[in-house]
User: Which sequence fits this backbone?
C-alpha cells in the first residue's frame, strides 16, 4: 500500500460494464522527497481533490472485485484523516 494526494478526476465517456459505480481519480503518489509518480485509481469511497488517500495496486486491487474480469490496477482503499508527518533523516 502507498499513500498519495488526489490531484484530479479522470472522466470517461464510456466505461466497461465490469467496472462498478465509482470514480477514476488521478493521484500523485507520495515519496520521501514529496509528490512523485501519478497514477489513475478507481475510487468507490468518494475521495475529493486534495485529500490524502491509501492506494493498493496490482492483484490486490483486482481481487477486491467479485468479478475476476475487472480491469482495475489501482484502488483507493482509504481516505486518511491525518496529514503526512515528515520523516527526520539522520545526519
Assistant:
Amino acid at each position: 500500500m502507498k499513500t498519495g494526494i488526489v490531484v484530479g478526476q479522470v472522466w470517461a465517456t464510456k466505461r466497461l460494464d465490469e467496472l462498478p459505480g465509482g470514480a477514476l481519480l488521478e493521484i500523485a503518489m507520495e515519496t520521501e522527497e514529496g509528490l512523485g509518480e501519478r497514477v489513475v485509481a478507481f475510487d468507490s469511497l468518494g475521495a475529493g481533490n486534495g485529500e490524502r488517500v491509501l492506494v493498493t495496486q496490482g492483484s490486490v486491487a483486482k481481487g477486491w472485485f467479485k468479478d475476476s474480469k475487472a480491469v482495475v490496477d489501482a484502488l483507493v482503499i482509504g481516505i486518511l484523516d491525518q496529514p503526512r508527518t515528515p520523516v527526520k533523516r539522520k545526519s
